């Protein structure tokens, strides 16, 4: 079994493969305790070694080994749910993410009647999402492909973070960065007016224009 990296000092190649006779690596390194939802179900897990943080492990099962495991890489940014490391044990891929307690996804925010997002709120969400996408596009050199309310979380400190970047790395999804930016426009329209039908061509066109407009307003060098 490949030597596993410390959570506080992860390497860009934190993928450990086990043979079928060896115990699962996540059960050696982590204790999977409670099933929780953080932009999708996962296991709240504690490190089995002194000093390890609480993490969230999401499990992706497959009938055969994914051919895209080589694309997995450590990813950290203030507007991204960090991917700490990953394991593959012959039956499933285990994606280890930073855990953000009391976070809710934007679908929950948008469906709460008492919550009314102001233009300032929407602009702040948009800026955070676009900065996360800029890191994903320019530093990770991939496309997120799932920019929607269900894959973005609002943390207890007010931070906005794109979730499930591991899925984006290993799934054969959309490859257009422009589509990510267009989805930001759809996101804003959905949050600003939850009753609006986004299937109408005029609303789709407006969403596309909105996403590209906000992208163009980002400074050339954003804070990492």
Automatic annotation (TrEMBL):
Residues 1-22 have a biased composition (Polar residues). Keywords: ATP-binding, Nucleotide-binding. It comes from Penicillium solitum. The keyword Nucleotide-binding applies. Residues 1-27 are annotated as: Disordered. Pfam families: Pkinase (PF00069). This is Protein kinase domain-containing protein. One of its GO terms (molecular function) is ATP binding.
